[in-house]
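Database export, one record per block. Field names are fixed; values are copied verbatim from the stored entry.
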Amino acid sequence: MRLTMSLLAMTVVLPAAAVLTTTATAKDRPITDQERPKLEAALKEAGCSGGKMEFDDDKTAAHPNGKFEVDDATCQDGKKYDLTFDPNFKVLTKKAD
């Protein structure tokens, strides 16, 4: 009986703890209505359009003020790319997806 309760606790508690930890550290947020036209213009200037846009608010040494991320943008060559932009909408990276 004791073993069954331990197994039950591990199958319920551990996955719940993992979800809480993951959501507590995720700092991505949707872009605002004010940010969208600026990010779309920066994306167009980079020769791309579309994709999933969000702001990554993780404060790192490389990006202390966060960064914009665009996943799966379609660029002029017809391929998909993941792009990052600084808070002033300057391209930081453009990686083939």
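Remark 1: Strands lie at 28-30, 48-49, 52-56, 67-75, 80-85, 91-96.
Remark 2: The chain is about 35% helix and 30% strand.
End of record.
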